Amino acid sequence: DGHLAYLGRADTQIKIRGFRVEPGEIEAALTRHPAVRTAVAVARTDSPAGPTLVAYVTPAPGTAPDPTALREHTADHLPGYMVPGAVVVLDELPLNPNGKIDRNRLPAPDLAPTGAVRRPRNPVEETLAALCAEVLALPEVGIDDSFFDLGGHSLLAVRLVGRAQAAGLRLAVADVVLHRTVAELAKRARPAVTAEQSADAFSPVLPIRPDGDAPPLFLVHSGLGFSLPYLGLARYLDPRYPLYGLQSPALDAAAPLPTDLRDVAADYLRTIRRLRPHGPYRLLGWSYGGVLAHEIAVRLQADGERVDFLADLDGYAGRTGRDESGQDDRELLLRALEALGHRRTELAGHGHAALLDLLRREAGPLADLDEEALLRLLRLSRHHGALMERFTPGRFTGDLHLFAAAEEWTADQLADRTGRWEPHVNGRVVVHRIAAGHEYLMHPGPQAVIGRLVDAELRRLDGERDRRAEGGRAC
């Protein structure tokens, strides 16, 4: 009847930095190469830079597989996050007594740069090469080596950009994600300028992609207070759109906790207008951030400014129906890890200490926080939830794009939550049902769906604006 019933998985998945990877797809891509007889893909956790995808292959008769060529072959058939960081050629794959692959006996790969390493040719390349080596815990990085091939990921990219800022070089996180090598990054590095463009992971503004010739998209943090989960959106939004993540000043332990969501909106509004003095403005927020983005949009319109795009990722004022007040520290850790790419079922056997360690390992900049600071940061989400529950939104003139977590709510609950927004929107509430839970909206799959929908709407708005401009010139 045209419907697909998803019953679950009968195979084995592995997870690399929030991406769910099916090893069989990688192995099938490798074995399609004429020089490969058999292949196995695994996630290794013994790399200094964190979990790394590694493939092991055996040669077809009469061939000598080239690991670099095999990685390029895989990149031609699979998305970038599924390309192994290393390919190791073995005469035979080690087997256990039952004849199955003994993964414990697969040798550790050498992830250090191989072959002739091109050394830096100027001071900018020299600085960036040293910073890459420092962040990746490697002795040396050549100017043609890919940050991600050597074990980097988007959260380590934040750390790299922050250290580049401290060294006097301005880069965007999206530069590292898209351009990857020291040689390419050096072409895009500019002198560091204002504090607003700092890549400090917990500064009030996270400049995910500060460059572009279209109106920027401001991404308002969820209850967790930081914008790190938004990093992957840069893959799906046209490079013309600058991306700024707004983060809570209360991430700084010395800052007071906010007492009213209206005051928070006024503060963020000042930050936004420093970056972009006049509209049109474009806002997207997740959960608490969705309610906050709506209030910021209302205030911008009250100031006579134009807001042509407003999106809310499953955020609703008032009580949510979830028990937010009784969350203990373990529950806060679980929700933070879910937001950063984990599934709760995978974490069931983890104790408090193990969850803390996992959060530090996988969330890059969070590794620098001690336990007290980390738990204070997580408890901020409980405080934000309380602010949202006692807040009554204003009225926005325009359409609200509501990305609803369809797996979180029953049909009646979703209808109730959609209805809550209708009195506060003088326009349409455009509901996009996303097949995910609330904490999972920035996991790779849902993020790709949301990113493409947002990109399509922004392109539509720009097309209408261009047509109006053409009509005005014709008149």
Describe the fold and architecture.
- With 475 residues, the chain is an alpha/beta fold.
- It is 37% helix and 15% strand.
- The protein has 13 helices and 16 strands.
- The protein has helices spanning 23-31, 67-77, 123-136, 154-166, 173-179, 182-188, 261-275, 288-302, 329-339, 352-362, 371-389, 411-421, 444-474; strands at residues 14-16, 19-21, 36-44, 52-59, 86-89, 169-170, 190-191, 205-209, 217-220, 243-246, 281-286, 307-313, 396-397, 400-405, 425-426, 429-434.
- It has a 7-stranded mixed sheet, sandwiched between helices.
- Strand 4 (52-59), helix 2 and strand 5 form a beta-alpha-beta unit.
- Helix 7 packs across helix 8 and helix 9 (329-339) crosses helix 11.
